[in-house]
């Protein structure tokens, strides 16, 4: 009778301790969900035992692996990267060719003396070198942001087992948020600056359209319709001739250089606008990823503490069993 009573007492003690562990774990999980509502959808995946592990014959096939890989692709970052590359390519390529055409138009028609537009030529040459640097930098920066999107997506969705978030990863994500914000503000200025040559070429083109109109064509007032490029400040007031009127101005508008430069400046301005949109898109993505990483790190810390407490309770149970067995 005595051993049976002791065995029953042991079973009751184990059941009460297991109920305490389960109730305590449920209380902790409920308290965490109340403090962080965004973690309610998080699913806990228990570690499979040796008996639960699938055999090599039942391993997932090629289709399942492809679906898993596609699930880890950061589609938002991919779209933003493509848009950023397209915008920067349009701005740099079209802007470089348009600047060269602008210099040719000024040298041939508005400023025949090389010393009058020497400063402008140096500035345009410097801007062309800056365009090379912008293209190289944003090619590298876009790849880095896309890689960061892959890292964050894999870390949040836990697609690669032990691939988890770290303090260094969260710090890098925060740094990218700040850097993308600064670049977005800078590209807003570039977008506004790229609209200036479009405005200048539009004024010249609209003046040529007035000269070509039937109301003014063939009249004596055509030669009084002029464009003075000096008023825009790109060449000094003593530049000769500086002002083109009438049929000479119409001939400039009919040249291939003017037509190409005008439309290339429009495309370059559109490319700068697309880059601004891409950076804003990147900023939203990075901010969201940083918030997800922060929440995932809190969940990871909570799970570590919970696992440690459960291990301690199991150690206490094993020691209590050993002590009861020593008395019997």
From TrEMBL:
Its membrane topology: Multi-pass membrane protein
Protein's UniProt keywords contain Transit peptide: no
Q: Which residues form the signal peptide?
A: none
Localization recorded for this chain is: Membrane
Locate the transmembrane regions by residue number.
78-106, 126-151, 172-196, 264-286
Using the UniProt record, give the first listed, main subcellular location.
membrane
Instruction: Give the start-end ranges of region Disordered.
Output: 1-22
Keywords from UniProt, A to Z, are: Coiled coil, Membrane, Transmembrane, Transmembrane helix
GO terms, molecular function: structural constituent of myelin sheath
Pfam families in the record, alphabetically?
Myelin_PLP (PF01275)
Which Gene Ontology BP terms does the record give? axon development; central nervous system myelination; extracellular matrix assembly; negative regulation of serotonin uptake; positive regulation of bone mineralization; regulation of actin cytoskeleton organization; regulation of focal adhesion assembly
Q: Which residues form a coiled coil?
A: 299-326
One annotated Gene Ontology cellular component of this protein: membrane raft
PANTHER family in the record, alphabetically?
Answer: MYELIN PROTEOLIPID, NEURONAL MEMBRANE GLYCOPROTEIN M6-B
Q: Which family does it belong to?
A: Belongs to the myelin proteolipid protein family.
Q: What is this protein called?
A: Glycoprotein M6B
What organism, scientifically named, is this protein from? Rhinopithecus bieti
Identify the taxonomic lineage of the organism of origin. Answer: Eukaryota, Metazoa, Chordata, Craniata, Vertebrata
As recorded in Swiss-Prot or TrEMBL, the protein's gene is named GPM6B
